[in-house]
């Protein structure tokens, strides 16, 4: 008939987390109750795509064959908004029309003007992320001629990087 808040107590039994809720005592024979539960669970990043709960209604008065447990599976979906920021240093580069690279040279200035591209990948939450893959395509050739000479690739913040096969081919 009415709505009441339940008093629930968490505890550990046999290496599992158990939450016991007292529904009321005594209850009349044939009583029907509906329980809505809201659970807050943290640390679900590595749980996969679902979490499973075992629910059981038990009577303290007498053992009953109706004390069977019910398995409830709830899908887990982590949400995180990623943001990619990037810039080039310097912002603008203009090459003279008569400029030619020096073939076979190992000096940086003989291969063109240094341009540094910096990309930052930010997690704006609310969840943490792992296993993120960022693929960055850089046009390094145009019409069979070198457009950008890819010199080096580096990362910060515990990320792994797969290097491009055309990275620093002249070992400058």
Describe the structure concisely for a colleague:
The chain is mainly beta and 172 residues long. The chain has no helices and eight strands. A hairpin with a 2-residue loop joins strand 1 and strand 2.
Describe the model:
It is a single-pass type I membrane protein. Pfam families: Integrin_A_Ig_2, Integrin_A_Ig_3. This is ITA2B protein. This protein is an all-beta fold and 172 residues long. The chain folds into two domains: 69 residues, no CATH class; 94 residues, no CATH class. It is 0% helix and 31% strand. The protein contains no helices and eight strands. The strands form four sheets. A two-stranded antiparallel ribbon has the order 1-2. A two-stranded antiparallel sheet has the order 3-4. A hairpin with a 2-residue loop joins strand 1 and strand 2. The chain is rod-shaped. It starts with 6 loop residues before the first strand and ends in a 26-residue tail after the last strand.
């Amino acid at each position: 008939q009415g709505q009441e808040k339940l008093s629930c107590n968490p505890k550990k039994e046999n290496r599992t987390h158990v939450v016991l809720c007292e529904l009321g005592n005594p209850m009349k024979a044939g009583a029907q109750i509906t329980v809505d539960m809201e659970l807050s669970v943290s640390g679900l990043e590595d749980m996969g795509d679902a979490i499973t709960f075992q629910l059981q209604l038990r009577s303290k008065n007498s053992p009953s064959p109706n004390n069977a447990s019910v398995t409830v599976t709830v899908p887990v979906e982590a949400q995180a908004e990623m943001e990619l920021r990037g810039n080039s240093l310097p912002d603008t580069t203009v090459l003279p029309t008569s400029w030619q690279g020096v073939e076979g040279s190992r000096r940086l200035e003989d291969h063109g003007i240094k341009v540094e591209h910096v990309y930052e990948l930010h997690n704006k939450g609310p969840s943490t992320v792992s296993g993120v893959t960022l693929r960055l395509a850089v046009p390094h050739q145009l019409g069979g001629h070198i457009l950008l000479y890819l010199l080096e690739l580096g990362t910060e913040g515990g990320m792994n990087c797969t290097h491009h096969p055309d990275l620093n081919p002249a070992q400058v």
